[in-house]
Design a protein that fits this description.
With 304 residues, this protein is α/β, with parallel strands linked by helices. The protein is elongated, with a radius of gyration of 22 Å.
Amino acid sequence: MIWVIGNVDGNNYKEPFSKGILARSLRVSSIGLDEAYEIANEIENSLISENITEITVNDLAKYIANYLKKFDKGVSLKYSKWREVRKSDEPLIILIGGSSGVGTSSMAFEIANRLGLKNLISTDMIREVMRKIVSKELNPIIHRSSFDAYESIRTPAIRVDAVIEGFISHVDVVNVGVEAIIERSIKEGISIIVEGVHVVPGFIREDLLKKGNVIMFTLIVEDEEMHKQRFYSRCRQPWVKRSLEHYMENFSTIRKTQEFLIDQAKIHDAHVINNVDIRNTIDLMVNDIIEEFGGENDVNEESV
């Protein structure tokens, strides 16, 4: 048995070395799952061959990084940077936005799995809570979808496109809840991923986004036909309540909200990723997170 020694508030503790935890950590370095478990097994055997029965968390991290250099220096560097991210007391807050159908939910789940983050919330869930609090008569916009909220505008603006005005009004209301989630996560030190159409560059308070541990992504699907096909894939799932017809009838307005999101991302210098290939998108997001926060911040989730 190999024991890993950690320290919390000046108190030492021991826990068994876990190949499973190590393998998940290695996946941050873009290593495949099978290969990650193989390397984790090799590292365990190497520790055993050196008669190491106890090792501190920091020494183990250095041992792993040195071992990975034999495998790939780039992988070793990425692992070391991720360790730097994880050593900070500040939580990691990842915001993933994009128009309906671009895959924010799927990517949030994959990123949570890759980084070992346990907390994930959709802005649609925040909206549902607000719908229970705010009546349809008081605020009809929030009781519509983000892409057809314009149909509930009582007094449309003259100089603003109606679809965009409805979308902005929709985002403004839900954004109150999004900001509350971010504030709570920072206060409680809880790492979290917030995803959904309501994560829009320029709408979340600047003082929150300037925190060194908050990063925002905007996902898009440039190809119109590919974007349309995403709804076919979504609507074949048995739990999806809305019909394909509903999305197809509103597809042009969904594309219009995407153009607005792209414009906002450019204005506010946000990360924009064309979500064509899932694995490529995940790698790009993980790389951006590590490059932006590696060496400064960290997420305290698991020991290795």
